[in-house]
């Protein structure tokens, strides 16, 4: 009798890379949730709204990868989630860490895309293109926020303006 995985249209190596991607998306979602909670309890309501929304979006990415794995005949296993930091040094430190996290995720996506090319796995190569676009968008977004933080500064007025502006980036 055929079992789950017998109809798998990708290699085991590709399967493992995709499951790792699920893990990255889950960790990102959890990290942004922790950041949202820290921002909210620190009085940065705009940044909190922004990170709650980012957390949801990363969860959507995770589910999209899970459903792709299942669609191509495998069984997406659900990994453990990494415990994110509870406290952050500052408003700026939160965004710096989020940016570093996105760069790590991009590196992982690029590795998976390269593997799909090496294996001539066109299904997976095509599937991953939305994620490549997403990563570029997200890296640019965090980069632009960090630039603004540097330009405007984080004195009382600066942080008020930035928090408000970041809240509007949520949509
Ligand atoms: Fe979906 Fe920003 O990683």
Note down, in words, how this protein is organized.
By secondary structure, this protein is an all-alpha fold. It has a single domain (12-168), classed as Ferritin (Up-down Bundle). It has five helices and no strands. Helix 4 packs antiparallel against helix 5 (156-168). It is elongated. The chain starts with 11 loop residues before the first helix and ends with a helix. The mean pLDDT is 94.
Short description:
This protein has 171 residues and is mainly alpha-helical.
CATH topology: Ferritin
What is the element string, with H for helices and E for strands? Answer: HHHHH
Radius of gyration: 18 Å
Question: Mean pLDDT score, rounded?
Answer: 94
Task: Name the CATH architecture.
Answer: Up-down Bundle
What labels describe this entry?
mainly alpha, single chain, Ferritin, 171 residues, binds MU-OXO-diiron
Describe the SSE topology.
Elements: H1 12-41, H2 45-71, H3 91-118, H4 122-152, H5 156-168
Helix pairs in contact: 1-2, 1-3, 2-5, 3-4, 4-5
């Amino acid at each position: 009798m055929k079992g789950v995985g017998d109809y798998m249209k990708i290699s085991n190596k590709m399967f493992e890379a995709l499951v790792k991607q699920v893990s990255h998306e889950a960790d990102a979602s959890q990290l942004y949730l922790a950041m949202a909670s820290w921002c909210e309890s620190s009085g940065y309501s705009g940044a909190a709204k922004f990170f709650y929304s980012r957390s949801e979006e990363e969860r959507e990415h995770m589910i999209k990868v899970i459903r792709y794995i299942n669609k191509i005949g495998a069984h997406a296993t659900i990994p453990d989630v990494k415990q994110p930091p509870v406290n952050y040094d500052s408003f700026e430190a939160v965004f710096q860490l989020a940016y570093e996290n996105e760069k790590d995720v991009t590196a992982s996506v690029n590795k998976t895309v390269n593997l799909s090319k090496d294996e001539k796995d066109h299904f997976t190569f095509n599937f991953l293109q939305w994620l490549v676009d997403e990563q570029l968008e997200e890296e640019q977004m965090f980069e632009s926020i960090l630039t603004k933080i540097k330009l405007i500064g984080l004195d009382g007025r600066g942080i008020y303006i930035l928090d408000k502006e970041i809240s509007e980036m949520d949509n």
